[in-house]
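Question:
When you can, review this sequence-structure pair and walk me through the C-alpha cells.
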Amino acid sequence: MKNTPSAFLTILLLIYIPVSHSDHHAQSSFKVNNISEDLLVLQGRGGNIALSRGQDGILVIDNDYADLGKALKQQIETLAGDSTLKFILNTHWHGDHTGNNESLNQTGNVTIVAHDNVRKRLSTRQEMPAFNRVVEAHPRSALPTITFPNSMTLHFNNETLTLQHYSNGHTDGDSVIFFEKNNVVHMGDHMFYPMFPFVDMASGGNAVSYAKNVGKVLAAIDSNTTVIPGHGPLTNKQGLMDFHNMLLSTIAEVKAMKTAGSTMKEIQSKGLNKKWAKWNGGFIKEPVWISFIYNSLK
C-alpha cells in the first residue's frame, strides 16, 4: 500500500522522537533565567514559561507538562513567595504548554487567557496524527475563560502585555506576547531555537504562514528586545532573524525542487543545503521539516 504524506510523517516522527523525547523527559526541575526583577523565564521539559511577579500577584505564560505540576508549583512559590497566581496565558493548546492549566487552577480563581481556538481545541477531543496520539477534552478548570479573536491588552505588575494572534503558523490558535516595559517577546512555538520547528498541520499549522508570521514579529521588535522562544535558550532580534532566514531559505529550496517536479521523497533523499545542518539538533529532523514545507506549499 502506498504511504500518504501524513503516514510518512508519522513514521518519521516515531523514528526520531523516542530518543530525544526520552532524554527530554528525564528532567524534572526548572532552570531559572532572570530577565529583570519582575520577569523571569523557567525552562523545564516543555515550552518555556515566563513568570511575572509584583504587586498585582503572579502571571505565567504557559506551564509545561502535567507531570511537572508539583515541581512547577514549588518553583513558583520559591520565586514569588505567598503571592497569588492571578493569570495563566496560553500561547497555544499543546500539552507541553497547557499541561498544568488544571493543577494551577484548582481553586477556580485563576483567569486563563488564550486565543479563541485554544479553548475550542482544549474543550474537544483532538487527534495528533503526527504523533499517533489522541488528546481527550480537558475539564472546565483547564479551559481559558477569557478568549480573543485577534489581540488583547493586559495591564499587570506595572507592565503592558499585548497578546497578538498570528494565524495558521504553528497551529490555528497561536499567540505571541509582547512586554512593553521589559522589551520582551514570548514567541510561543513560533520559535524553536536553534532547531527546525514542529508545525502541527492537523491543528491548522502551515510552514509558509509560520515564516510570514515570524517576519511580522521581527518588524515589531528592536535590537534590544529579549526573545523567548517556545523551546530553546533566550535570544535576541539577531537570533530571530537567523531563524527567519532559515525558514525562508529552506522553504525556497523545497519550493524550487517541488516546482521542478520532485516528489517529497526525492527532496528528502536529496536534502537541503548543508549549511542548515546546525538546525537539525531538535526532535524535528530535516526530512520531517521538508515534509512540513512540501505539504504547506500550494
In short: The CA atoms of residues 14 and 22 lie 12 Å apart.
